[in-house]
Design brief:
about 110 residues; alpha/beta
Length: about 110
């Protein structure tokens, strides 16, 4: 909820979100789903969204893919890997599909 609050009140353009899967309240997939379904005002639904996690869990990767995550990094993250993920994520095109994103079952932490 803290991340949603901060994104809802940004006073400048955000062109990339780097988000850890593990959060104090909720998880990064929940934030990604909120962004992709248009529930975060002032943030484009097709924003470059990089998910970072300590786990290479198949379920997390699957759900992230269903939500059109722009990039996925497993910790530890090096500056080179981060730069590559952002470059690839910004170049990635996909059509926004609100109905599809709303139906994705996101695991609750």
């Amino acid at each position: 909820s803290d991340a949603l609050g901060k994104l809802a009140t940004v006073d400048r353009v955000v062109d990339c979100i780097l988000c850890d899967y593990t959060m104090a309240e909720g998880n990064g997939l929940q934030l990604l789903q909120a962004v992709r379904t248009g529930n975060v005002k002032h943030v484009r639904q097709d924003i470059c969204f990089i998910l970072v996690t300590v786990s290479g869990s198949a379920k997390i990767v699957e759900v992230a893919g269903q939500l059109d995550v722009s990039g996925y990094l497993v910790k530890p993250v090096t500056p080179e890997k981060l730069q590559q993920a952002i470059a690839r994520g910004r170049a990635k095109y996909f059509a926004i599909n609100y109905a599809k994103y709303a139906q994705v079952e996101v695991p609750i932490v």
